[in-house]
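User: Run a structure prediction on this.
Assistant: Running it now.
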Amino acid sequence: MKVDREWSDGLPIYRQLRDRVVAMMLDGILKEGDPLPSVRNVAAEYRVNPLTVMKAYESLVDEGLVEARRGLGMFINAGARARLLEGEKQRFLEEEWPKIRETIERLGLTPDDLLRARRGKKP
């Protein structure tokens, strides 16, 4: 698993690990049917307690994104990415977009300004 080795103080490590796995699923790095790296390997590589990794993985199971297969490990469920995308879109529109829209309005940015900025040009 290729994730940043730095941990933030803002959230528990298990939650940060869960969020990183979710990001890998959204980015298409982990796909439906793919196995998650073993708890033991992740714990050793990132120097965290195996119980922390297990807690992160169990939260993914509780959300229905991952399934545990006895003796085989943890695997990404079918439809997990689509379910995540829908939830993330809704969260963005409810929590982040209003703040972004307010900043755009406060700064007097136009749609043309935003399109130019997207292309790397100055407003």
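The two ends are 40 Å apart (CA to CA).
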